[in-house]
Amino acid sequence: MPSKRRSQSSNSEIILGEAVGLYLSTVSPELSSEIQQDVFKFVRWYGETRQMATLTSQEIANYSEQLNSSPNKSIEHLNIVKQFLNYAHKQGFTAANLSAHVRVKKLSIKAPAKAHGKAEETIILTSQGYEELKNKLSVLKEERPKIAEELTKAAADKDFRENAPLEAAREKQGHIEGQIRDLENTIKRAKVVEVSSERVLRITIGDVVTISDVTSAEKINYTLVGSKEANIKQGKISIVSPMGQALFNKQIGDVLEVNAPSGILKYTIMEISRL
């Protein structure tokens, strides 16, 4: 149930941390637990005590542009930020709807033209990620006979004008075949990085890293993987992402500094372990 609107004077003075707390109270507990990390990441960037009314459209555009330039997957994170900003405007926390300035980079469904005679780029994967992709490909290929059967049954209905099952089966087939082609291409170009079982000294691909926010003491877990394995919800970040590059080759006790509009964010590396 949406929270009651605050008075106009209070709305104009509400801080980012309080606004996020109100937003999370309006969603289900299950959904709240899923989106907390994304919303709090946005809060840390601008500062918990930053007044919502002082956020500008240019700041929001710059924030989304920075994430879009990162190789790791950021679409889901930006969509969550967009939903929060839309809520904030409806509650009167911001005069303008800043969600309109969250620019989510569209993924092209067309494969880029290959340069004549140029070798395809190698994709770095951990051994675990490589096996996961192979298993996923196997599962998708097992779907082919089932979809073929669905298409046959749906096509038996001669009234093609309103044959929703046939259209749905064709759409499902196209989606799965697209995934199969993408996975086959990734596996073909993959270079598997073997992770040493020796004692960890410095961070590299395949490591699970625990960092602690110097100010709040909040602990965050990241797994460094190749760009094709990156998954923000699972805490997997690309080795070539900004945070991945900052963590690479560091060791326990090192302090990372990240520049943000709210100031310099500092994190201490607490633990390093192997997958």
Report on this structure.
The strands form 2 sheets. This protein has a 5-stranded mixed β-sheet. The chain is 44% helix and 16% strand. The chain is built from 8 helices and 7 strands, in the order αααααβααββββαββ. It has helices at residues 8-13, 16-24, 29-46, 57-68, 75-90, 127-155, 164-189, 242-247; strands at residues 123-126, 190-193, 207-213, 219-225, 236-238, 255-260, 263-274. The chain folds into 3 domains: 8-101; 123-193, Orthogonal Bundle (Helix Hairpins); 207-274, Transcription elongation factor, GreA/GreB, C-terminal domain (Chitinase A, domain 3, Roll). The longest helix is centred in the middle third of the chain and has 29 residues, at 127-155. By secondary structure, the protein is an alpha/beta fold. A hairpin with a 2-residue loop joins strand 6 (255-260) and strand 7 (263-274). Helix 2 (16-24) packs antiparallel against helix 3 (29-46), helix 3 packs across helix 5 and helix 6 runs antiparallel to helix 7 (164-189).
Considering the chains and any ligands shown, give keywords for the structure.
single chain; 275 residues; alpha/beta; Helix Hairpins; Chitinase A, domain 3; 3 domains; five-stranded mixed beta sheet; two-stranded parallel ribbon; 8 helices; 7 strands; flat; disordered N terminus
**For the CA atoms, what is the radius of gyration?**
23 Å
Which term fits the overall shape?
flat
Helix coverage percent: 40-55%
**Domain tally:** 3
Strand order of the largest sheet: 5-4-3-7-6
How far the N terminus sits from the C terminus, by CA atoms, comes to 41 Å
Tell me what portion of residues adopts beta-strand conformation.
15-25%
Q: Give the ordered list of helices and strands.
A: HHHHHEHHEEEEHEE
Tally of helical runs: 8
Q: Structural class, please?
A: alpha/beta
Uncertain spans: 1-9, 107-118
What can be said about the biggest beta sheet?
A: 5 strands, mixed
Rounded mean pLDDT is: 78
**Overall number of strands:** 7
